[in-house]
Amino acid sequence: MNDSLEPLLLDHEIDGIRELDNKLPRWWVWLFYGSILFAIGYLAFYHVFRAGDLMAAEYEKEMKKGQEIKQRALSQFEASIDTLQPSNDPEVLARGRQIFATMCSPCHGPQGQGLVGPNLTDDYWIHGPLFKDNLHVILNGVPAKGMVTWKGILKPREIYSVASFIYTLRGTHPPNPKPPENLQPAKTEPSPYE
Fold first, then answer.
1. Most C-beta atoms within 10 A of its C-beta, which of 28, 89, 112, 158?
2. DSSP letter string over 79-90?
3. How many Å apart are CA 149 and CA 184, to the nearest integer?
4. In the chain, where does the domain assigned CATH 1.10.760.10 lie?
């Protein structure tokens, strides 16, 4: 055995192994003491004096702020719906196509031909043919017919994107379209895509 370790070895031995009494580095010891002091301060600040909010309260505050921002954005969007026009920006339409494929195609079909929901490619629109009508239907849904309200799920920008994409489906002729549910063709506004 190394003679330089001999003074550090303790007297007790188990299975031929003796414990080495090696001192910890000073930086480690001070770090350990610092963590103890931090824990005492944390306990006093948050749990004894209740000077700061715990995680659950912080979460609730942040959620409330987020809801206020969301409500403000939705209110501004709803106030501007009557003046909005469909976008023909390729990025907006691509985002709308993606949202439509994920959220809308299970009911309206992948090409808007209608499945459970109505056909979006013809001129027989149940709730109105105007772009603002589409925005209102997507935003508020039609619970009586099973159409969910998307205002709590999609952001205003996403609602606008999907409504713009749906507007491009008009006049297309997908295979096996669902027959019209509204027998009066709607008077439509001029399409920005023609």
1. 112
2. HHGGG------H
3. 25
4. 55-194
pLDDT digits (tens, 9 = 90+) for 120-147: 999 888 888 899 999 999 999 999 989 9
Reported in sequence order, the residue ranges of the chain that DSSP labels E, i.e. its strands, are 9-14, 17-20
pLDDT of residue 180: 86
The pLDDT value recorded for residue 11 is 81
**Residue 132 C-beta-side C-alpha neighbours within 13 Å:** 9
CA-CA distance, 180 to 63, in Å (whole number)?
43
| CA 111/CA 139 separation, integer angstroms | 21
* Cβ density class 148-171: b for 16+ within 10 Å, e for less: eebbeebebebbbbbbbbbbbbbe
Residues 6+ apart with CB under 8 A from 36: none
Q: How far apart are CA 171 and CA 160, in angstroms?
A: 20
Residue 86 reports pLDDT greater than 90: yes
pTM, two decimal places = 0.71
Structure tokens at 169: 């489906």
The 10s digit of each residue's pLDDT in 18-34 is 888 888 999 999 999 99
